[in-house]
Give the backbone structure.
Amino acid sequence: MIKYFFTLRTHYRLLLLLLLYLPAQIVNSAGKSLPDWTNSELRGSIFKESEYLTGFGSSALGDTQDDRIQNATDNARKVLSRRIVVNLESSTRTHIAEVNGQIEELTEIQIKSNSDLSLVGVEVKTHYDSKKKRAYAIAIMNRRNAHDYSIKRVKNLRKEIDEQLELGDRLLDQGKRMEAMAAFQRCYNRFPQIEEALLIAEVTGGAGAEIIGTTKSNVTRSNIDSRVSRIWDAPVTSISDAADILAKRLETQFPEPKNVSCLMGPFYYEGTKFSSDFSERMRVYLRAKLRIDWRETVGNYNPKSNDKRRDQARQCGADWVLEARLLPSPDAIKILIMAYPAIKAGTPITAEVDVPKDVIKKEGLNAEPVRYADLLSVSLGLAENELIPEGKGLELWTDQGSEGVVVHKGEKIRFYVRTSNSGYLRLIYRLSNGERTPLYTNYFISEAQANKVITLPDEFECCPPYGNEIVLALFSSEQFPHLNLKSKIIDGEEYEILVETLTEITTKTRGLKKAKKNIEVFDTRISITTMD
């Protein structure tokens, strides 16, 4: 029994020593188990430079083992990408003199490539040291395989460009200019991919002339540019076409179009402040096709300065203001767009397109404002020398601003004024048919209201007759003379119409001024286009 006891005890001792010894051996083995490729001195002998390009990375960052392995893998790929770019920069110049202009265009761009290449066919090996909680990774690119794959990729991309170019030409011949533009854009998108594939092919074992000779396509960016020029220069066949062209031209100039907020201002005809059904159609189409953040005028628009359009943009949070002028020529209407910064100083953006008059007519629209000839021959019934300098001592605007105001059937509009003194306000509305009706005859503004924004109490609704109309504001320090009015039905709506001409009314007002030198009289006006 005693012998057995000691024998058992000896066995336990041996077992205990063995248990203590084995972990030490395991730890030591783990400490020596790093793959040879993690050693920079051994790495080159394992993956010979003549056969492989490699990138090594490690990372101890991350919450989990998987996170650290992923970080190490990403680092290894980035190192491999940078090696490709560095190798290219040292070798490209030696090839430029040996190749034709086609590849030279590409190699110049390749030099500017970044280090974030889309690497294909890369093998990644990883190892994780659980004791140090560090991951290791090596990205391995076989030169021969990468070269062959890149050449194949260049051929396929060139073939795709040829197909898209053919499709774009066919669409352009059919008059489908925006569909053709999309096809040409797809050609542009493939050029960077070709440049990347050529870059990898050259670094992994081929000269530029050899690579370019592997494909039959001779298409360059300049070939696509010439097609795009055809789109811009081709005659416009519809208003939608014109809006497409303007939108594309503006988008290419806006800094980050998707982040641009813009207030759309008026589209004036010539030097007037009037719109037409054609200009309104253009505004609607351009708004739909230009992919930016459009802002709306806020209610109770309150200008803070004489630059009312910028004030309006600021109040609705717009960074830009977009306006247009319609300039007629014998056969076409030129739409000239200008977008300018609303807050910070900056260079305006411009775009233009010519719309044939027969295209406008074909779509049942009029480029000119309603009764445009009357607008040119009559200025509110006032002789030029009877007009008081506009805006002196009196400001007038609406909740849609003071320029390019367009109101549609059933919409409501409100007026605001600001005067330099106390006195009386008269608003006279010139309808599109030339008749005149008073909105306010002697609205009193107290001394306490002077130099403050005044919201006039009534709201007005858009109704017939529709067209280009004018609101004349007169302000006097004394009450205005009585107006002679008559009731009249116009397009089913009843109005109180002035019997006297505006010249006669103004003469009476001026007569007050001549009789009493201390009486001040100001006037201003705004244009409004009403539409059905």
User: Anything to note?
Assistant: The CA atoms of residues 15 and 217 lie 77 Å apart. The two ends are 119 Å apart (CA to CA). Residues 65-96 form the longest helix (32 residues). Confidence is low (pLDDT under 50) at residues 1-32, 91-116, 378-391, 511-516.
